[in-house]
Amino acid sequence: MKKEIYPCFWFDAKAKEAATYYCSVFKNARITSENPMVVIFEINGQKFMCLNGGPDFKFNESVSFVVECDTQDEIDYYWNSLTKDGGSEGRCGWLKDKFGLSWQIVPAVLGKLMSNPEKSQRVMQAFMQMKKFDIKTLENA
């Protein structure tokens, strides 16, 4: 295979609005091409496509994008940015943005905490009670 694989997001006439929104949330992002039907953008060099496909399909939780964060400030930034203006909070670090796309905003340290046999159960119990992850609470579990 010579070409990259990248996701396509289906929108009802909001492809440009969505691409612009995602580029405003993520710091290393830019729109690379656009026409009335398709807008291509990149986040950290990863290509994404937004398609003006019409009203037939909607996003659901079966697909989500994971944003791994090193600090609580990063978690707070992405959580607040992606839930504002009509997004919604879920449990265990999950949220939906204003377009209905699902995201997981997770601390990078979560895998390490979960792999500690002495702490993993307490960590899991702690994050099952959370919406937005709190790194200190997880580390202290």
Overview of this protein structure:
- By secondary structure, the protein is an alpha/beta fold.
- It folds into 2 domains: 1-57, Roll (2,3-Dihydroxybiphenyl 1,2-Dioxygenase, domain 1); 59-141, 2,3-Dihydroxybiphenyl 1,2-Dioxygenase, domain 1, CATH 3.10.180.
- The chain has 5 helices and 8 strands.
- It has helices at 15-25, 72-83, 110-115, 120-128, 135-140; strands at 8-11, 29-34, 38-43, 46-52, 64-69, 88-89, 94-96, 102-107.
- The strands form 2 sheets. A 4-stranded mixed β-sheet has the order 1-4-3-2, with helices on one face.
- The longest helix has 12 residues, at 72-83.
- The protein is elongated.
- The termini are far apart.
- The mean pLDDT is 96.
Largest sheet: 4 strands, mixed
Report the oligomer.
single chain
Number of domains: 2
- Note the overall shape: elongated
Number of strands: 8
- What is the string of SSEs from the N terminus onward? EHEEEEHEEEHHH
Query: Helical amount among residues, as a percent range?
Result: 25-40%
Please tell me the overall pLDDT: 96
**What is the CATH level 1 assignment of the largest domain?**
Alpha Beta
CATH architecture of the largest domain: Roll
Number of helices: 5
**CATH topology label of the largest domain:** 2,3-Dihydroxybiphenyl 1,2-Dioxygenase, domain 1
DSSP strand (E) fraction? Answer: 25-35%
Radius of gyration: 17 Å
Pairing-aware structural class of the strands and helices? alpha/beta
| Parts with pLDDT < 50 across at least 5 consecutive residues | none
Record the strand order, biggest sheet. 1-4-3-2
Q: What is the rounded distance between the termini?
A: 45 Å
Looking at this structure, what is the CATH superfamily of the largest domain?
2,3-Dihydroxybiphenyl 1,2-Dioxygenase, domain 1
